[in-house]
Amino acid sequence: MNIQALLSEKVSQAMIVAGAPANCEPQVRQSAKVQFGDYQANGMMAVAKKLGMAPRQLAEQVLTHLDLNGIASKVEIAGPGFINIFLDPAFLAEHVQQALASERLGVAKPAKQTVVIDYSAPNVAKEMHVGHLRSTIIGDAAVRTLEFLGHHVIRANHVGDWGTQFGMLIAWLEKQQQENAGEMALADLEGFYRDAKKHYDEDEAFAERARNYVVKLQGGDPYFLDMWRKLVDITMTQNQITYNRLNVTLTRDDVMGESLYNPMLPGIVADLKAQGLAVESEGATVVFP
């Protein structure tokens, strides 16, 4: 039951009997302070002005027609014309019992909507940090709440699984003769990433090889795609262990990596060129601001 809606209907009916127009707004809200009751009807101010009478006078007339028997233990007029409503504890207890007996705890289902929740979003070849965990927990709480309300929720785990770092990681795998990346643990990859980055920054020959590997990877070379998939799979497997430990509802099916957009890029570039937004500059296709 929506108590605010119930009180609004009751007050509105009493206002109409007291002479207010049929479309009057009772403005029933939860009270900001306990001394003003549980709810307060503030609509007398606006309606009284239209009727050419004092708000308190209208409130007094409304009170004579307001039937909250069994709902409120006390109803009083405060200030210039506010109506304070104190709910009856027995009424509240009865409805709490009804809510407890209900599978949905008395929460009505709204009109069903499709809602996308983008959360967690870890990076590949790195352990999740506290920011990822925060997003994961808050996002899953939002998902569960929306599903409880009856909505269709699409979980979007948008992971960082594409970019120049993969050329660097694959090059370092080769250098360390660890091509069988499937046996590596994520903890190894965390240190592995730092070592690869260090060599990338300090060894120009290594950096050049890594950049070449990025080109091969983005060009769809089967060998480099296979190495990339191993790095992604290790990370996703470890992340799923973390999700299960946290009792989070994310699964591998919810992963929407940056690589998801790769097949779409040629069409997007062609469209940008057709509209004259993308141009060739120094061997690259760019969009200038």
UniProtKB/TrEMBL annotation:
<dbReference type="InterPro" id="IPR005148">
    <property type="entry name" value="Arg-tRNA-synth_N"/>
</dbReference>
<dbReference type="GO" id="GO:0005737">
    <property type="term" value="C:cytoplasm"/>
</dbReference>
<dbReference type="GO" id="GO:0006420">
    <property type="term" value="P:arginyl-tRNA aminoacylation"/>
</dbReference>
<keyword id="KW-0436">Ligase</keyword>
<dbReference type="Pfam" id="PF03485">
    <property type="entry name" value="Arg_tRNA_synt_N"/>
</dbReference>
<protein>
    <recommendedName>
        <fullName>Arginine--tRNA ligase</fullName>
        <ecNumber>6.1.1.19</ecNumber>
    </recommendedName>
</protein>
<dbReference type="GO" id="GO:0005524">
    <property type="term" value="F:ATP binding"/>
</dbReference>
<dbReference type="InterPro" id="IPR001278">
    <property type="entry name" value="Arg-tRNA-ligase"/>
</dbReference>
<dbReference type="InterPro" id="IPR035684">
    <property type="entry name" value="ArgRS_core"/>
</dbReference>
<keyword id="KW-0067">ATP-binding</keyword>
<dbReference type="InterPro" id="IPR014729">
    <property type="entry name" value="Rossmann-like_a/b/a_fold"/>
</dbReference>
<dbReference type="InterPro" id="IPR036695">
    <property type="entry name" value="Arg-tRNA-synth_N_sf"/>
</dbReference>
<feature type="domain" description="Arginyl tRNA synthetase N-terminal">
    <location>
        <begin position="1"/>
        <end position="87"/>
    </location>
</feature>
<dbReference type="Pfam" id="PF00750">
    <property type="entry name" value="tRNA-synt_1d"/>
</dbReference>
<dbReference type="GO" id="GO:0004814">
    <property type="term" value="F:arginine-tRNA ligase activity"/>
</dbReference>
<keyword id="KW-0648">Protein biosynthesis</keyword>
<keyword id="KW-0030">Aminoacyl-tRNA synthetase</keyword>
<keyword id="KW-0547">Nucleotide-binding</keyword>
<comment type="similarity">
    <text>Belongs to the class-I aminoacyl-tRNA synthetase family.</text>
</comment>
<dbReference type="InterPro" id="IPR001412">
    <property type="entry name" value="aa-tRNA-synth_I_CS"/>
</dbReference>
